[in-house]
Amino acid sequence: MSVTNVLLSGIVGSTAYGLARAGSDVDRLGLFAAPTEDLHGLHRPAESHVSTAPDRTLHEAAKWCRLALGGNPTVMELVWLPDELYEVRTPLGDELIGIRASFLSAGRVRDAYLGYATQQFRKLVSRSAGPLPPGTRGRTAKHARHLRRLCVQGFELYRTGQLTIRVDDPDASHRSGEQAAAAPGAAEPLLRRFETAFAETRSALPDHPDEAPAEAWLRRVRHAFYAAPVASRG
Questions:
Q1: In what order do the strands lie in the sheet with 86-89?
Q2: Is the pTM of this model over 0.85?
Q3: CA 183 to CA 144: how far, in whole Å?
Q4: If we measure between CA atoms, which residue out of 173, 209, 215, 171 comes closest to residue 190?
Q5: Share of the chain above pLDDT 90, in %
Q6: Does residue 234 register a pLDDT over 50?
Q7: 208 vs 52, more confident
Q8: Which of 31, 54, 109, 225 could hold 64 in an S-S bridge, CB 3.0 to 4.6 Å?
């Protein structure tokens, strides 16, 4: 997959969380700018490009902003990565990192992170309902690890306004994942505890995101990638 105008890209997923082990995939996430002229034609360009080998997802700048404003945990990782995990970092990408707090709001962060964690719990229970097919246990443990991570990261972001990508104790996350794979019910108290914590904690985040910085940034992106038409000769 060849995508031009990549503004920001880095390594996310298990490598970024500190949960990768031998054989783990290396996941990459980024955003790009479509040529501004292409946005005005009859057919709009693709807003996302997903590839495997390598595993990479790239979102167009406007789509990334919309997802981030909605509190999407996956896209939000991109602007909170440790410096060493960025593989493409442009001035416009740095500007986006600089306004990352403006995308956040208490309700959307709470709903998005708890929603994703609940999805992982449902997958965990579904995969564990009955005998596990060969090779399934590892995926089941992965759901449990993601459930725990989403709860911890989401609550930190909700409470403090800061997001730490790397988990505190990777070995503990792996152990809890294996335990939950063996007994899925063990993960439910964790989910319920964080539901209560969100409900009882005053957030450092505003009630609504501030869309103005994102709008201004996106307009700078459109200006930067606008190719003025060549004047016709009479």
A1: 48-51, 55-60, 27-32, 6-12, 86-89
A2: yes
A3: 10
A4: 173
A5: 67
A6: no
A7: 208
A8: 31
How many angstroms separate the CA atoms of 48 and 215, rounded? 20
Distance from C-alpha of 52 to C-alpha of 75, rounded to nearest angstrom: 18
**What would the two tokens of residue 205 be?**
């985040």
Residue 169 dihedral angles phi and psi, to the nearest 5°: -135, 85
- The tokens describing 140, both together, are 């089941």
Section 28-54 average pLDDT = 92
Residue 172 is encoded by which pair of tokens?
């503990």
CA-CA distances (angstroms) from residue 139 to 83, 112, 129, 142, 195?
29, 22, 14, 5, 24
More confident residue, 41 or 156: 156
Q: Which two tokens stand for residue 171?
A: 């070995």
- What does the block give as tokens for 156? 């930190």
CA distance 120 to 147: 6
Distance CA(69)–CA(5), nearest Å, equals 22
User: Which pLDDT band holds residue 1 (cuts at 50, 70, 90)?
Assistant: low
Read off the pLDDT of each residue in 38-46 and give the average, rounded to a whole number. 90
